[in-house]
Amino acid sequence: MIAEVVEGLNTLIDFRYQQHFFADNGRPGMGKQRTGADGDDIVLRVAVGTEILDEDQETVIADLTEVGQRVVLAKGGNGGFGNLHFKTSTNQAPRRANAGQPGVERTLWLRLKLIADVGLLGLPNAGKSTFLAATSNARPKIADYPFTTLHPNLGVVGVDNAEFVIADIPGLIEGASEGRGLGDLFLGHVERCSVLLHLVDGTSDDVAGDWQTIITEVENYGDILGDKPRVTVMNKIDALDEEERAEKLAELEAVAGPVMMMSGVAREGTVEVLRALRKEISEDRIRHTPVEEPESWAP
Q: What is the pLDDT of residues 90-115, one digit of tens each?
């Protein structure tokens, strides 16, 4: 039994409806000293970013991150030997045979982690989906009530002839690490990211408290996220006047350090934010877009 990463898949939904897989049995030996044919392999098609876990749901057997990767999950049993195998010059008709051994049977878990360069973090309605829609071709659901985003969304963004992938993760709330709201169910999707983009709603009455809520939940999740570089951005500045912007910015910078300002709706400051994210992503993960050369003209 083999797992293989293929193009065109972005979920593991097929395995919800079929959870048991059996490879074909081999064929018995035949006359004229012929061995039986091996059983056909069974190949499980999975999406890029799939982790295969052992029955304890903790031991990682394989982390499949590239199209074409294959891993053998279970091997077939020994086919055994017929009596011809035991024939000797002094024992021309042995009555001995080996029945072989059964194949491997095991219980495995599949977990999908999105392949993205940037992970979007923030409280519900911090403007994550709006930012993704404004800077990419992704079309996430956008509304003015909490938990609009119930599933992670991916968007490819471009800046300065470079492209990278941003993952919009459903909003965290205080106590998410303890299972409140949607919990930290989707934080695993940003484990592979190079940098985290933390959006804070600039219209909130307590921007510093909102920032601390997310940081606490990220740190409770584990060092794998807590140690990642972060770009902190105060969003929705289009709804603030100059005095309010300065006041909220000072309040947020007092706890978060350097903070950028942006409006996803008005697309104010979005390019600067994308450039800041671009600097945190290693070159081997960036996809460069070709620069069009101007057409030459001759009289």
A: 777 777 777 777 778 888 888 777 66
Contact call for residues 193 and 228 (beta carbons, < 8 A): yes
SS3 62: strand
pLDDT level of residue 207 (50, 70, 90 thresholds): very high
Structure tokens at 271: 């390019």
Cα–Cα distance between 236 and 204 in angstroms, integer?
10
- Give the Å distances, CA to CA, from 127 to 27, 120, 130, 144, 294: 60, 10, 5, 9, 38
d(CA 127, CA 71): 40
φ/ψ of 211, rounded to 5, equals -60, -45
Q: Report CA torsion sign: 7, 225, 169, 258.
A: negative
pTM higher than the cut 0.70: no
CA–CA distances in Å: residue 45 to residues 3, 59, 196? 6, 21, 30
Evaluate whether 193 touches 119 at the Cβ level (below 8 Å).
Answer: yes
Categorise residue 68: left if φ over 0, alpha if ψ from -120 to 50, beta otherwise. Answer: left
Give 227-283 as a DSSP string.
TS-EEEEEE-GGGS-HHHHHHHHHHHHHHHSS-EE-BTTTTBSHHHHHHHHHHTS-G
pLDDT at 185 over 90: no
